[in-house]
Amino acid sequence: MGQAVESDLVERLLDGEHRALARVITKIESQSPGYRDIVSEIHAHTGHASVVGITGSPGAGKSTLVDKLAKFYRDQGETVGVIAVDPSSPYTGGAVLGDRIRMASNVGDMDVFFRSMSARGQLGGLSTATADAVKALDAFGKDRIIIETVGAGQNEVDVVKTADTVVVLVQPGSGDDVQMLKAGILEIGDVFVVNKADMEGASRTVAELEEMIHLRDDPRAKLDMGHHGAEAMGDHHGHGEHTDDDQDDEPEPDPVWTPQVVETIATTGEGIDELVETLSDHYTYLAESGELDEKARQRAAEEIRQLLRSDVNRLLERELDDRGGIDDFASAVVDKETDPYAVTEDVLEPLRECLEDRDD
Amino acid sequence: MSADSEQRTIRCLIAKVGLDGHDRGAHVISRAFRDAGFEVIYSGLHRAPDEIIQATVQEDVDVLGISILSGAHNTLVPKVMAGLEEYGALDDTLVIVGGIIPDEDRPGLMEEGVDAIFGPGTPMEETIEFVKENAPERT
Ligand code: B12
Ligand SMILES: Nc1nc2c(ncn2[C@@H]2O[C@H](COP(=O)(O)OP(=O)(O)OP(=O)(O)O)[C@@H](O)[C@H]2O)c(=O)[nH]1
Ligand SMILES: [Mg+2]
């Protein structure tokens, strides 16, 4: 046990051993003793892969699309890693993870590494576990990494935000989906995919999305909706720059990314090439605008905060236990022997003193 | 729930291999395992041995459960076992087989490295108990 085992595992992962990669992700997922040392060791080997996060309502076709995307990248000679995060049923413990069943285009191809992950035991840290698993795939040498998660709540938004590019999948004709977007997912999408374009209502959903994107990015568009709406429908495959020529010729600000809308039929693969091109455009934009580095810094900051929070919590829990447990404190508060502020002050005092001592 | 009491969740792959369309048993097992608190990945129908190997290795499941009612177990199961060996996954994966496996074929499969065989009529509790007791340690 201990350091040696972890180092050996990391070495085998860096050597390209599939089983070692799989085991590292297991350790990350179950937060086994030693997993932190492993993530620390692989960190220096990361930073080469481009990471795409795909979210959307249940059954929108995310896994089918991921399968086709992986196939496309493989045909270009690139290697692919997929993390399919299923945040459902974290409480009962049991779960059926159903995303893998759609991986049909990459049969037996070990260079597509597909991993199903559940929310078990992560207690809000699911995004940390996902980010760590992505690091493992990156250090292993995957060129492309795709994260799939169902778009339901804040947890999933956090998960998908660990990616460089966020793709939001929408089904045609479901006003519900567009409604859901209004409730928060819209803000995080860099690329919107109207999948199942073979079904009725696809073009209307495309139009609705483009209208929402314009309203979001340019409040003035509200005054001018007819024009923008029509333009949007005519050309929804632009390349991310504002090309409005009817605006005053103010000096061009930093290039801005306008979210793009792409139509796909994941079951047949139609539209995948265009999606790949749009993803590549977005990546180029990120790199050229400096946002890629900025995002990496933001992610690192978030990771540090998250770890600090959970570790400090852990320390405090132990301190509480050492002092007889929270129940006694709670009873004392209820019996008016003390109050919550006084207890907090009391429990934190050693920590505060320690930090203040160091300051002088 | 303290931080160090790492709760162990058993991960299983339930696999249908070959041209075998009987999937009721696989579904029954998947649901029962889920209800027992296991994490279950179901392969779907008509998987090649290579796909089962790929999934077992990558998902790092504790348990591979193969469901076969087609009669092709004597050719398919050894292929899967050989692949697991190749990727270093044989030693720490519990392999169990269910479905229609005639008695006379069982010793051969066990020799290949199968840990247990559960035919029709096996009480579900027995199967779950076996998995809980024999799932390999992941450290
Ligand atoms: C229902 C059935 C069908 C249905 C299947 C529907 C479906 N979607 O599953 C249909 C009508 C489609 C069908 C078709 C055929 N069938 Co059929 N079918 C049966 C039947 C009557 C019951 C199977 C069943 O669903 N049982 C209920 C489930 C819950 O039980 P189970 O699968 O055995 O699973 C239990 C255990 O085995 C175990 N288990 C199973 N998998 C696993 C996995 C793990 C990990 C574990 C731990 C345990 C485990 O746990 C389960 C619960 O106890 C059996 C006969 C029988 N009595 O078994 C024949 C049977 C399996 N079929 C048979 C045959 C030949 C066929 C056909 C080839 C041709 C035909 N004559 O119809 C086709 C082939 C279809 C195909 N593409 O594969 C033969 C197989 C002979 C063989 N293996 O040598 C059988 C045995 C009938 C016979 N006596 O001849 N069949
Ligand atoms: N008609 C049509 N069906 C599709 C298309 N893409 C996916 N589907 C079908 O939609 C169903 C759900 O597909 P999945 O890929 O599992 O969807 P998902 O979003 O991953 O689902 P969850 O992970 O369960 O949320 C499957 O039956 C697919 O075959 C498409 O472009 N057109
Ligand atoms: Mg899916």
From TrEMBL, chain A:
UniProt-listed SUPFAM superfamilies: P-loop containing nucleoside triphosphate hydrolases (SSF52540)
Acidic residues bias: start-end ranges: 243-253
Basic and acidic residues bias spans: 222-242
Pfam families to which the protein is assigned, alphabetical: MeaB
Domain (AAA+ ATPase) ranges: 48-198
GO molecular function: GTP binding; GTPase activity
Region Disordered, annotated ranges: 222-257
Entry keyword set: Chaperone, GTP-binding, Hydrolase, Nucleotide-binding
Domain of life: Archaea
Family as reported in the entry's similarity comment: Belongs to the SIMIBI class G3E GTPase family. ArgK/MeaB subfamily.
Protein name: LAO/AO transport system ATPase
Natural source organism: Haloferax profundi
Automatic annotation (TrEMBL), chain B:
Domain B12-binding, residue spans: 9-138
Top-level taxon in the UniProt lineage: Archaea
Protein keywords: Cobalamin, Cobalt, Isomerase, Metal-binding
Gene3D superfamilies referenced in this protein's UniProt entry, alphabetically: Cobalamin-binding domain
MF annotations from Gene Ontology: cobalamin binding; isomerase activity; metal ion binding
InterPro entries membership: Acid_CoA_mut_C, Cobalamin-bd, Cobalamin-bd_sf
Cofactor(s) named in the record: adenosylcob(III)alamin
CDD domains found in the cross-reference section: MM_CoA_mut_B12_BD
Pfam families: B12-binding
Similarity section: Belongs to the methylamine corrinoid protein family.
Protein name: Methylmalonyl-CoA mutase
Species assigned in the record: Haloferax profundi
